[in-house]
Amino acid sequence: MNKDILQLRQANPQILQFTDLHLSKNDELMGINCDESFAAVKALSSQYHHIDLTLITGDISQDHSEASYYKCAEIFRYQNHPVAWITGNHDDNELQKEILSIGALTPKKRILFRHWQLLLLNTQIPGIVCGEVNDDELASIEQAALDYPNHHLLIVMHHHPIPMNSEWIDKHCLNNQQALWETIDKVPQVKGIVFGHVHQSVDAVKNGVRILGAPSTSVQFSPLKKEFTIDKQQPGFRFMELLANGTIKTKVHRVADNKFMPTYDPAGY
Ligand SMILES: [Fe+2]
Fold it and tell me: CA dihedral defined by 197, 200, 206, 208, rounded to 10 degrees?
């Protein structure tokens, strides 16, 4: 629970979120070359000339390989701002800690700006697709608010904290969503939750908390489907600006021109 804090000072930090890169030794997932799709998304994000932090919200790897994390490390190590990451259901947390702690990449899980505190949670249950916010992580939410009661709190995690109304992916959500919300309801500093995992753009509000999911940088999943369905929308990223009044200005961007077209794989996710 005692998480080292990365101290940053910006008043209205501008943040990029990349998620579900699914990098691997053999590059491809359902007909999409994930190296190329990520490169295209990263290039698109360069329209933002001033960024204070990049968040990579899990599923960096598709195959748990060292090679996938070395690819990520090479892409981000010379970034001119900190790059923080979390663990998704596909990731190997030990390899992440070992390989993604170089240059601009930071393993720190608490980040402090002038008005906002970010808390990065590990919701992985090794070996299965579902996630969980364990008791230590739940306690860290309350502790973070006790430590900095005047800061707005943004929770960053891989799994979705509310139902997506897609039956298949809601089977792969947080096992203890209710416990998470019981904690959040006691912590009014929580103003937002940022997540990945669902490979689609989400912008919702629950109990006054902004809920933001981002498109994958690789394959997209169609919203509101009973069965696993891939989507022809293009890979993308989310831009956020955390305002001093506790609100979040945000926009999703996607690659243009149907450059990346997936092939249907009945084996699913
Ligand atoms: Fe994913």
Answer: 100
Give the alpha-carbon dihedral of 59, 64, 68, 73, to 10 degrees: 70
Query: 266: CA distance to ligand 1 center in Å?
Result: 16
User: Virtual CA dihedral for 103, 108, 113, 117, nearest 10 degrees?
Assistant: 160
Q: How confident is the model at residue 1 (pLDDT cuts 50, 70, 90)?
A: very low
Hey, is 252 helix, strand or coil?
A: strand
Task: Work out the percent of the chain whose per-residue pLDDT is above 90.
Answer: 87
Query: What's the pLDDT at 254?
Result: 98
Structural domains in the chain?
A: 5-254 (3.60.21.10)
pLDDT digits (tens, 9 = 90+) for 142-197: 999 999 999 999 999 999 999 999 998 998 889 999 999 999 999 999 999 999 99
Identify the pLDDT of residue 240: 98
Q: How far is the CA of 25 from the centre of ligand 1 (A)?
A: 16
Give the Å distance between the CA of 217 and the centre of ligand 1: 10
* DSSP 8-state code for residue 143: H
Q: Tell me how far the alpha carbon of residue 34 lies from the centroid of ligand 1, in angstroms.
A: 12
What is the model's pTM?
0.96
Instruction: Taking residues 112-136, report their average pLDDT.
Output: 96
Report how far ligand 1's centroid is from the alpha carbon of 43 (Å).
Answer: 21
- Contact between residue 222 and residue 198 where contact means Cβ atoms under 8 Å apart: no
